[in-house]
Design goal:
Strand order of the largest sheet: 6-5-4-7-10-14-15
Number of domains: 2
Order of helices and strands: EEEHHHHHEHEHEHEEEHEHEEEEEH
CATH topology of the largest domain: Rossmann fold
Bound molecules: 5-S-methyl-1-O-phosphono-5-thio-D-ribulose
Number of strands: 15
CATH architecture of the largest domain: 3-Layer(aba) Sandwich
Length: 352
Amino acid sequence: MQAHICWTERRTLRLMDQRLLPFEVRFEEYDRAEAVAEAIRNMVVRGAPAIGVTAAYAMVLSAARAAKAQDPREARRQILRDADILRQARPTAVNLAWAVDRMVHLARDLSKSGAEGEDIAQALEDEAVQIHRDDVAACRAIGRAGLPFVPQEATILTHCNAGALATGGYGTALGVVRAAHEAGKLAGVFADETRPFLQGARLTAWELHEDHIPVTLLCDNAAGALMAQGRVSVVVVGADRIAANGDTANKIGTFSLAVLAHHHGIPFLVAAPRSTFDPAAADGSAIPIEQRAQNEVLSLAGRRLAPDGVEAVNPAFDVTPHDLIHAILTEEGPIHPVNGDTVSRFLAKAPS
Ligand code: MRU
């Protein structure tokens, strides 16, 4: 699959518009941080690590623009304003705030040491490229960490899209799928279609099909029946934010899958990099859940599905309690079992 987040030599950001997939592969070019924030809000790019990488590049656009300001105080104000707009674009995925904060801290440190303008912009550019590279490397390591949990001839069920399109590249949950495929362990993937935005049908099916990895689509509500028939070896999903006790926010419907997997004795795995952990959230109740427009549920492909006057509720994410999670696969190895002690031990270790 071709890269979907591209930093150009002209210092612009090119993003594949994921709303058009699988029917059209089209890139849009951005030169302003505010426009990138809008693209994140509107799901041109989505998936927690991918929006973190994208926001890092957006901060470079902000710094490059600020470098042209006459007054260094005005330049600093502009960078902080853009950082705020970006942080608010989507509230649940903590990778977004993580990446923006990392860029703001770097800009602040450089400014304190006397750097300004173009020097700051150049340092932020190097940092964003590094965040992007690190994310791809983390995904590959997550894939390797998942291998011992995947049996021979495995059928992996996944939800939403936690693939190359949702990360800097390679994917978290689909990183495990790719590693299993490369190791000759994979019989196939079951992809939930993932109502209402259909990330499974449009994105997971597309990127696996592009890479010749066998994928079968199912309605979200078919997962229990497949598990009861013994057709699912393991469930692997991504995460938008993991609390200090291991409770995990991910795409709406993930919690139901975890309950079903528990009922059927099927291992339920979460695949996520260190940047998805939020030590400030003691448990899942502290994770903000994005509520999206009713229209995403009430209509499909521009056509209304429900009678006029009927309302819909559209939480974009739910929280899976840590005791339903068999292991969290990180770039530094698996966390297993998942509880406050094992997660805090992981967080206390210096990142490798
Ligand atoms: O609303 P989305 O498409 O951004 O939701 C994406 C997910 O829920 C993913 O599973 C999660 O961000 C992890 S992506 C590696």
